[in-house]
Specification:
The protein is 35% helix and 24% strand. By secondary structure, the chain is of the alpha/beta class. The protein starts with a strand and ends with a strand.
Length: 197
Amino acid sequence: MKLKIMNLNKSFDGKILLRDFSYSFDDTGIYAVIGESGAGKTTLLRMIAGLEKEYSGSIIGGGIGQVSMAFQEYRLFPQLNALENVIFAISDKKDKAELDKAQKMLSRLGFNEKDMQLLPDELSGGMRQRVSLARAFLKKSPILLLDEPTKELDKENAEAVLDLIRETAKDRLVIFVSHNSADIDELSAIKIAIQTS
């Protein structure tokens, strides 16, 4: 089912974030949501994910079960190490196949075996971000939402994330928020502008 947004209106604390916003997405491809700070970009992702319920208009094709998302806040389980955080989020099975998938994804994102055993409070901000991204990339869903996916990453790790976005977008719809115009241009993303009211 295609993701379709129709006549979306959203206000927050008396400020209009989205006014009569409509958009139809393809089933696959890369879309970048752009706009000034406070324009409602992250709020739009949260609405597509089904996490934000108070709005008028309709969103067809999104919601829980259809979406995986990497937030700016990494939302890691503090008692689980990096590898366990990824496995827990992608499957209730803890078999070798799931373990291999999680290890390979973290390895692609610059983790060595020792790093994978670290707890969240032992990880740098960039490492926590990469664990969050690994979970989102591996979770099976037709829509992948990414909020500032390269914000805390060095050039090498940012390139690894951009490569994963390109690969993923062949089979899934990827929608991301970024203030980094170089990332948007490098991915040849379709731009969706959110205007402040």
